[in-house]
């Protein structure tokens, strides 16, 4: 049930509180109720200290329970207590080396400390321990992408992950981000459109809209932002992107209207070839 609580916490499920209360009503002599309570508290920053306390209570009941180590490590990491979090994740690796989340925690702590080389080494070791599967490959790719000298290797890892599981979203998002950073918008658009043939998430539509806007395909970008906001009305990036595109299109329309008025007043022939008036939207800060 402690793993179930972890999964509910990842999904921000409202069932987590009910699970925690039900488990605690059964017994407080097992680690699972305390872990569930800890995950519930961890979703509220103001209750982070309480979450650490619950994780510690679970650890006292069962020092071999890896889920309480992961809970405490993640809460401490969110509290920016990285050295303490790193200690717990390392202990989690020793306790359960075949759990992906244990290696992920160590890598994320190293990245937060700016220890990229150590993060790379840990992620690479995770691939050896866990095998060449999508999650460790994507973890390694995420670290490689942080160094400009290893971005190509990062893309190779992510493409390998997608070759194994073509719909693995973490790899898709990261590869699309890399294409955006390189201003390879067409590649990102092709990747995202291919994904949308099989699955639809607000983030997929939002990233596609960002790329379309940067590629000067403004009307389709608006359509994609609209879909993203329909799926997730709280998506701030989609809302901000839509507002930028609407402002840009309004400016273009106003500019064309002014040109029409000036031309009519001067009696000049109108030039309806828009190619000379195209604007390079890729230089705009769509991703800021």
Task: Briefly summarize what is shown.
The chain has 288 residues and is mainly α. It has helices at residues 2-10, 15-26, 31-42, 48-61, 66-78, 82-95, 100-112, 116-130, 134-144, 151-164, 169-181, 185-196, 202-214, 218-231, 236-266.
Describe the model.
The protein has about 290 residues and is an all-alpha fold. It has helices spanning about 1-10, 15-25, 30-40, 50-60, 65-80, 80-95, 100-110, 115-130, 135-145, 150-165, 170-180, 185-195, 200-215, 220-230, 235-265. Helix 2 (about 15-25) runs antiparallel to helix 3 (about 30-40), helix 5 (about 65-80) runs antiparallel to helix 6 (about 80-95) and helix 5 (about 65-80) packs parallel to helix 7. The longest helix is centred in the last third of the chain and has 31 residues, at about 235-265. It is globular and about 65 Å long.
List the helices and strands and how they pair.
Layout: H1 2-10, H2 15-26, H3 31-42, H4 48-61, H5 66-78, H6 82-95, H7 100-112, H8 116-130, H9 134-144, H10 151-164, H11 169-181, H12 185-196, H13 202-214, H14 218-231, H15 236-266
Low-confidence sequence ranges: 272-282, 284-288
Q: Distance between termini?
A: 40 Å
- Strand and helix order: HHHHHHHHHHHHHHH
Structural class of the helix and strand makeup?
A: mainly alpha
Shape: globular
Mean pLDDT over all positions: 86
Q: Helicity range of the residues?
A: over 70%
* Record field, number of beta strands: 0
- From the alpha carbons, calculate the radius of gyration and give it in angstroms: 24 Å
Beta-strand portion reads: under 5%
The helix tally amounts to 15
Major sheet details: none
């Amino acid at each position: 049930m402690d793993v179930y609580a972890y999964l509910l916490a990842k999904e921000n499920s409202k069932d987590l509180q009910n699970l925690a209360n039900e488990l605690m009503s059964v017994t407080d002599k097992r680690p699972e109720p305390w872990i569930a309570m800890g995950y519930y508290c961890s979703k509220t920053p103001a209750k982070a200290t309480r979450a650490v306390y619950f994780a510690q209570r679970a650890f006292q009941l069962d020092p071999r329970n890896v889920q309480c180590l992961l809970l405490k490590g993640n809460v401490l990491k969110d509290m920016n207590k990285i050295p303490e979090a790193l200690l717990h994740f390392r202990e989690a690796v020793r306790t359960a080396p075949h759990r992906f989340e244990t290696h992920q925690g160590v890598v994320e702590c190293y990245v937060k400390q700016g220890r990229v080389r150590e993060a790379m080494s840990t992620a690479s070791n995770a691939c050896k321990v866990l095998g060449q599967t999508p999650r460790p490959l994507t973890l390694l790719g995420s670290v490689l992408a942080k160094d400009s000298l290893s971005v190509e290797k990062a893309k190779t890892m992510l493409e390998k992950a997608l070759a194994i599981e073509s719909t693995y979203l973490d790899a898709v998002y990261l590869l699309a981000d890399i294409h955006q950073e390189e201003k390879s918008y067409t590649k990102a658009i092709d990747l995202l459109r291919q994904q949308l043939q099989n699955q639809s998430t607000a983030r997929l539509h939002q990233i596609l809209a960002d790329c379309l806007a940067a590629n000067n395909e403004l009307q389709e970008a608006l359509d994609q932002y609209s879909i993203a906001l329909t799926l997730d009305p709280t998506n701030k990036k989609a809302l901000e992107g839509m507002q930028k595109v609407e402002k840009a299109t309004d400016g273009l329309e106003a500019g064309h209207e002014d040109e029409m008025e000036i031309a009519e007043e001067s009696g000049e022939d109108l030039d309806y070839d828009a190619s000379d008036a195209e604007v390079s939207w890729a230089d705009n800060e769509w991703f800021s």
